[in-house]
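Students often ask why we bother predicting the structure of a whole assembly rather than each chain alone. The short answer is interfaces. A chain on its own may look different once its partners are present, and contacts between molecules only exist in the joint model. In this exercise we take two input lines together and write out one structure for the complete complex. Read the inputs first and try to guess which parts will touch.
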Amino acid sequence: MIQATYPLIFAALLFCVGVYGVLSRRNAVLVLMSVEMMLASVTINLVTFGEIARTADALLTGQVFALFVIAVGAAEVGVGLAIILLLYRNRASVNIDEADLMKY
Amino acid sequence: MNQVLTWPDVFMLLVGVVGGASALLVVLSRNVVHAALYLVVALLSVAGTFLMLGAEFLAWTQVLVYVGAVIVLILFGLMLTRAPIGPMAQHNENGPLALIVSVLLFGFLCVVIFGAFGGERIDVTYVGAGAIGEVLYVHWAFPFMALGFMLTVALIGAIVLARREEGEGPAPTDAETTVLPDQDFSGDVTTTPGRAIEEGAQQ
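Now the answer. The structure tokens for the assembled complex follow.
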């Protein structure tokens, strides 16, 4: 038996810290790390709500969805780092405040 | 019964405190490599949360994929972009606004979570790898294959994006690889015998 609020609050904390990191960090790789934290908090929420629902279907579906989110996160990191490397090669900087070529 | 702090609660609190602190350090650290290493602790505590919720397969997948692969990829990204290793200012001018947004969001989520699930307890059911595999390969077989296809496409896309293109930057190996086919048609006049033997060995 475990309090339902503990994992949910932990997930909310991870998500909000990730939001702060995405909004305030300069280095693109650090922004990617914050996005990873937000994805991890989403997987915690999926598993926890699967456990709270107390049916076998919800339990397994939550965990399978969490597995899918982990796989999508791995693919996202691969493509994201390739884009960051391309940005570094063209602009010699990974400061995302300077990457405003497509902004206006 | 509702107020008793059981041992799983204590472990979950410990994991949550350690994970939350290291997540804050990821965002606040002025040294990029330290931030990546704190991210390891944060993701390991996510795996610990999965263990406390009875999702064993998911916990070890989290350790393998995130701590094993993604962190290595991120460290390579830091190295290849020549990120400054020492401490330096990493935050832009949006800092205070971002802090307000995230604190307000956290307060809102806390109110909602305590209002909906305050005092509720999870009866943790253990889910082994067998049950997950059965569901994944029977009920979720097609989405699983689509996921594999998506991973392949992402891999190819990453290679295509990160590859050095023609005429972009210095490419010292290009000269050697483009000269070799021309020399096959130029006959023995311009190529010395030793060079021809070398080419034959290479082909």
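Check your guess against this: The longest strand of chain B covers residues 121-122.
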